[in-house]
């Protein structure tokens, strides 16, 4: 199904509630990443700006149907170090602008093809690891222990603790009020996930996450009047900057320091940001496409261009660098989003709420939002996924489990790097030749294309085969012949099956497969 042919307004009944859920997920993450990245409370709004730009600007330009962009936890250390190196936040904004320009140029140079070469086992390992990380990192917030910033993904934390020691402190210094709110919130989300609730018209449109937030505010207010010791205040609530007038609101926006244009460190930071942000985006694009129920393919070069424009705009307005992020994207998918309108809606709500109702947002307990993220994490890391990956064999399971453990023990990019090394080792153990032979001929009214796969077809051939399939002419007959193949990698089988089931019918292509085994999608990934 092509995103270009999809009417963005045709699925508002799905995209509007989904956009609202993504907004509730994005709000604390934008603020948490901003505080961790800058170390300054007066720059919290830089995270909101990045979230708005990621939602509206990138949402409009991107070809991703369900991907959501915003400030990323994976860039926190780079941003914090860069601001210190450059001497000011305004000089850093100039580096963000140039990073976006580099990404834009990379998109035109078609560097997005890199995104086609991440093995499926590593991507699924990344999704699972992020799910487990979300669960482990949000449990302390659900217990009312809010020392670490919401959205942190690294094993080692800035406060000297780590993911597991934080669980100990969360139990030791837990808040009874937060636990009550979390238990009620979790019960509500489980209730809203039941089939009979989804049949009620009102709850089809109003997501359970909205009721979780409203109940959280109500319970916390009741605690204040009845049992003051249970009430959550201060850092246990959302802390959005509040402007008393419109001029103060616009003061939250910063401008780049163009006098730093001759500083070589600006360009070093820009290149670093461009590389890391692009890698995180391409990883998220691949993961989001796997989660998409309609199996749509995001054009990666267009995504790099959209991210480039987004970072240029964010830098000019005073925002943090942006990437596509899997937590918000998976929340979008799990909430029933259909088109990129849900992404745009989340950005618009983020802007309007920060402008019109910041005081009310600051009544939301972080415990309520933590439970929403806990559910997102569970859906990414269901136990059945491990069983399904094990059933695929060691060459899929070992890179998968190594990626999971590596990300949990380090951070996203290091973990992916370790997983890639293991996956490539398994690939290189196979003796492979050219991936396929391509032949086209005219038969009566219909053009016939034959793709004969070679003896060994690995994930390294995934990009070229996917490109060939995408260029298959409309209204043709396509024969994919695997009779010569001793081994066809799972990644390639997945591409062939997705093309046969989703893309080919749209282009009126008749697909005939010979000795190409059918596969079963694992855990909805």
Automatic annotation (TrEMBL):
As for subcellular location, the record says: Membrane
> Would the keyword GTP-binding be found if you checked this record's keyword annotation?
no
Q: Give yes or no: UniProt keyword Transmembrane helix.
A: yes
The protein's topology relative to the membrane is: Multi-pass membrane protein
Q: Which residues form the SLC26A/SulP transporter domain?
A: 12-389
Name a single GO biological process: transmembrane transport
Could you name the Gene Ontology cellular component terms for this entry? membrane
Task: List the keywords (alphabetical).
Answer: Membrane, Transmembrane, Transmembrane helix
> Which superkingdom is the protein from?
Bacteria
Q: Where mainly found?
A: membrane
* Any Pfam family hit: Sulfate_transp
What is the protein's name according to its record?
SulP family inorganic anion transporter
Positions in coiled-coil regions:
none
Q: Tell me where the transmembrane regions lie.
A: 20-36, 43-62, 93-118, 173-193, 205-227, 266-287, 363-381, 401-428
Native species of this protein?
Answer: Chryseotalea sanaruensis
């Amino acid at each position: 199904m092509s995103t270009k042919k999809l009417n963005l307004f045709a699925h508002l009944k799905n995209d509007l509630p989904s956009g609202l859920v993504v907004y509730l997920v994005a709000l604390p993450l934008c603020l948490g990443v901003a505080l961790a990245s800058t170390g300054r409370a007066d720059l919290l709004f830089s995270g909101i700006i990045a979230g708005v730009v990621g939602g509206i600007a990138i949402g409009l330009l991107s070809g991703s149907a369900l991907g959501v962009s915003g400030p990323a936890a994976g860039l926190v250390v780079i941003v914090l170090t860069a601001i210190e190196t450059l001497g000011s936040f305004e000089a850093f904004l100039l580096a963000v602008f140039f990073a976006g320009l580099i990404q834009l140029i990379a998109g035109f140079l078609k560097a997005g093809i890199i995104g086609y070469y991440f093995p499926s086992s590593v991507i699924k390992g990344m999704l699972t690891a992020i799910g487990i990380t979300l669960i482990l990192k949000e449990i302390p917030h659900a217990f009312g222990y809010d020392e670490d910033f919401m959205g942190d993904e690294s094993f080692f934390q800035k406060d000297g603790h780590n993911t597991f020691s934080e669980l100990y402190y969360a139990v030791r210094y837990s808040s009874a009020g937060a636990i009550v709110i979390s238990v009620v919130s979790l019960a509500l989300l489980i209730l809203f996930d039941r089939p009979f609730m989804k049949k009620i018209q009102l709850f089809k449109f109003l997501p359970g996450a909205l009721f979780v937030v409203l109940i959280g505010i109500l319970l916390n207010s009741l605690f204040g009047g009845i049992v003051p010791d249970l009430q959550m205040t201060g850092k246990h609530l959302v802390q959005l900057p509040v402007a008393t007038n419109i001029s103060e609101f616009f003061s939250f926006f910063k401008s780049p320091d163009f006098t730093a244009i001759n500083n070589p460190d600006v360009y070093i930071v820009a290149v670093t940001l461009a590389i890391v942000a692009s890698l995180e985006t391409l990883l998220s694009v691949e993961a989001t496409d796997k989660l998409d129920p309609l199996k749509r393919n995001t054009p990666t070069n267009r995504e790099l261009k959209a991210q480039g424009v987004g970072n240029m705009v964010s830098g000019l307005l005073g925002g943090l660098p942006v990437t596509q992020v899997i937590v918000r994207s998976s929340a979008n998918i799990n909430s029933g989003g259909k088109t990129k309108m849900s992404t745009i809606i989340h950005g618009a709500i983020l802007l309007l709420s920060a402008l019109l109702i910041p005081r009310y947002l600051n009544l939301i307990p972080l415990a309520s939002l933590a439970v929403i993220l806990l559910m997102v994490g569970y859906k990414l890391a269901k136990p059945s996924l491990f069983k399904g990956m094990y059933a695929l064999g060691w060459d899929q399971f070992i890179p998968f489990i190594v990626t999971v453990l590596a990300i949990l023990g380090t951070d996203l990019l290091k973990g992916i790097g370790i997983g890639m090394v293991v996956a490539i080792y398994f690939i290189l153990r196979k003796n492979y030749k050219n991936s396929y032979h391509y032949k086209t001929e005219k038969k009566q009214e219909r053009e016939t294309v034959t793709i004969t796969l070679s003896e060994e077809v690995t994930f390294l051939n995934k990009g070229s085969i996917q490109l060939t399939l995408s260029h298959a002419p409309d209204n043709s007959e396509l024969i994919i012949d695997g009779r010569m193949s001793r081994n066809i990698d799972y990644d390639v089988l997945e591409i062939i099956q997705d093309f046969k089931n989703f893309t080919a019918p749209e282009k009126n292509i008749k697909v005939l497969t010979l000795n190409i085994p059918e596969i079963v999608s694992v855990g909805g990934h």
